[in-house]
Amino acid sequence: MSSNSAPVVDRIRIIPRPDDFLDRNVGASGEVFFDKQANTLRVYSGKLAGGYSVVTEDNLARNIANAKVAAVKYTTTVARNTGDNANVYYLNGAETPTLTFVIGYTYIFDQSDDTNVYFPNANGTTLNQHQLAFSSDNANGVVGGGTAYENEVRYYLDDDPKTLAEYYAGFNAATSRQVQITITNDTPATLYYWCKNHAGMGGTINVAEPGTGGGGGGSGASVDVSDTPPGTPSAGNIWFDSSTGSLFVYITDTDSSQWVQPTAPVPDFSTFSSVQITGGAQSIDASTKSDTLNFTAGTNITMTIDEASNTLTINSTGGGGGGGGGSYDQSLNTSDSVTFASLTTPSFTNSGSGGALFDSASTITLDAPDGILLENISKQSEILSSLTGATGVVAHDFGANAIFDHTSIAANFTANITNVPTTTDRALNVVLVLRQGATPYIPNAVQIDGVAQTINWVEALAPTGNANSIDVITFSLLRVGATWTVLGGYTNYG
Fold it and tell me: Is 268 left (phi over 0), alpha (psi -120 to 50) or beta?
């Protein structure tokens, strides 16, 4: 019997369907469709909605990321930086962190938050898009004259794979937006994440071998060893001070960052059963095995124990040490003048005669989160800064004072208020005294730390100034959230 070598059919067409149809379809056992968005086959068992996707090179990486196997996700948002002078990326709440990516891991930048589409504008109003991409040759990518790095980089809008150009074009219309990169042995040692439309928004990515960094993108368990702190630490970095043998961890909280030396609880070994104070040399003596530690007073120090109150009083009888010699109890009551490098106390009371004197070689700063309360103030004076020949943009240093006396004004000018605190829900006042000549001039524009602000004048009328008189302009700077509101007031003194 002769066989026919010709195929029964020379082609098979499998019906293409979109994701929304395939995801809700249960199908019949053995039924097959073509997923035209994921470019793969969808096979159904008749039991599971959505069926099973046939693995391809592209969706393999996607499935691994969705399964959270060797995958790290960054919730990516856009907000003002700490200095309030630029828009930047925040990754899981951290401002433009330096990241460490490990070979073999997949990293997902989720830009679904609408700050990526509109910030600093209100959601749903004016577009200001911040599409994220990678570069290996420029910190600002194409914006800085470099190129986009796309090896093992994938883009998704509403879970559909896209090219970089398609990701840019469909960014604002999508509900979910993700950029995904898988790190391989071919990935450059240094990458950058950057914004398509704006410079200075991203940061650096360091690529590490497995075991040298954390899969989460931090510095892992690596330790910097030096006699000075690392110059640009990130939260969680560890530093071993080679000069002292001390170990430090870099901690970042809501309002500060600092190196902190970890401490561990000390077990109670009951090393000393008593403490005794004896005369003799000026030393603390525990040179031999003993259950007694002896404090020895010296020529200038006396020590007294009050067993009834269980207190130790140390009394300096003269000389030495900055405090002028004084005695202090547990509440630090003294009639002597005392010098401190720093002082932490819930209250300060002057129980003696006359007024208490706080004297400093420089500025005395009072800072409290709930405000400073001053009562019974009998005298008050403020520093006055003199400025002459104002024209163009004129800096007014709020860090030095808040009253500025202008003479010989040359033209209308922009008042740039610098070194302004950015604590939210605060009101600050700046006063400009204008000593006018034959032609009056005013500050017709305002900047705060170089950023232009709108002046809301009293009765919506901008002043024009008065010749040969004194005009006073008052700017009230209201800080609510991350937004400034400037109120302008005007008074003429004839």
Answer: beta
